[in-house]
Design goal:
Layout lengths: L2 E3 L3 H11 L5 H19 L5 E7 L4 E7 L4 E6 L3 H10 L4 E2 L1 E6 L6 E7 L9 E4 L2 E2 L3 H12 L5 E4 L2 E2 L1 H10 L3 E5 L1 E2 L2 E2 L5 E2 L5 H6 L5
Parallel strand pairs: 1-12, 4-5, 4-6, 4-8, 8-10, 9-11, 10-12, 11-13
Antiparallel strand pairs: 2-3, 6-7, 14-15
Helix pairs in contact: 1-2, 2-3
The protein binds 1-O-pyrophosphono-5-O-phosphono-alpha-D-ribofuranose, uracil and magnesium ion.
Keywords: Allosteric enzyme, Glycosyltransferase, GTP-binding, Nucleotide-binding, Transferase
Catalytic activity: UMP + diphosphate = 5-phospho-alpha-D-ribose 1-diphosphate + uracil
EC number: 2.4.2.9
Length: 209
């Protein structure tokens, strides 16, 4: 799988604030927003543009517009904290939603929301979820997207575990990964180590199912 680790001092500083257990939810959310800006910027580096003439006050210049703005798909809850900033970066983008929560015993995702276009052939999709741990939640999302014909998918994460990356590679979905870090491993609770804890709880507090 094509994996881009965004290794930049400004990204590292935001990631550090997110990792720091002393950061409160306001600091955590703000750091996630700022980091999302950098991840989306890098994810869009290879986006196709269409050229057109634009009149400056002086002469004609070549201007550019995005040829195929991606569909943004935040995975609730934690991905919600990335959605607004991704839309700021790509104002032309539309947004679909997927919601799921891991069962704390089995670590398998339990879906509760699916709001996506019926057809996604030829349309780039950016899945927004800060955490790729076992990969179960991302795989479920990729399945929904592939069923609708998506074949150009970018998973934008903050921290990825090797186990999750391997799971994505094993199933061979048409996906590339953009992340701020690849961490060491998962612990017995399937949390990423060192990770940053529960990205949903750290933004919003405990989950009420
Ligand atoms: O790779 P996986 O093992 O599937 O774990 C990753 C998932 O866990 C987190 O969500 P969580 O289930 O905690 O829900 P939340 O966002 O509501 O907290 C995270 O945002 C991912 O969606
Ligand atoms: O470390 C982890 C693993 C799954 N979900 C999280 O929010 N954090
Ligand atoms: Mg959570």
């Amino acid at each position: 799988m094509d994996t881009l680790v965004v290794d930049h001092p400004l990204a590292a500083v935001r990631l550090t604030l997110m990792r720091d257990a002393r950061s409160d939810s306001a600091v955590f959310r703000n750091s996630l927003r700022e980091l999302t800006q950098m991840l989306v910027y890098e994810a869009m580096r290879t986006a196709k543009v269409a050229a057109f003439d634009v009149a400056t006050p002086v002469a004609t210049a070549t201007g550019f517009r995005l040829q195929d703005p991606p569909l943004l798909v935040p995975v609730l809850r934690a991905g919600l904290g990335m959605a607004d900033q991704a839309s700021v970066m790509i104002p032309e983008a539309q947004t679909g939603f997927v919601g799921m929560a891991r069962d704390e015993t089995t670590h398998k995702p339990v879906p509760y929301l699916e709001a996506l276009p019926q057809r996604l052939e030829g349309r780039p999709v950016f899945v927004l979820d800060p955490m790729l741990a076992t990969g179960g939640s991302m795989l479920y999302t990729l399945e929904l997207l592939a069923e609708r014909g998506a074949s150009d998918i970018t998973a934008i994460c903050v921290v990825a575990a090797p186990e999750g990356i391997k799971a994505l590679e094993r199933l061979g979905y048409p996906v590339r990964l953009v992340t701020a870090a690849v961490d060491a491993e998962l612990n017995d609770d399937a949390f990423i180590v060192p990770g940053l804890g529960d990205a949903g709880d750290r933004q919003f507090g405990p989950r009420y199912s």
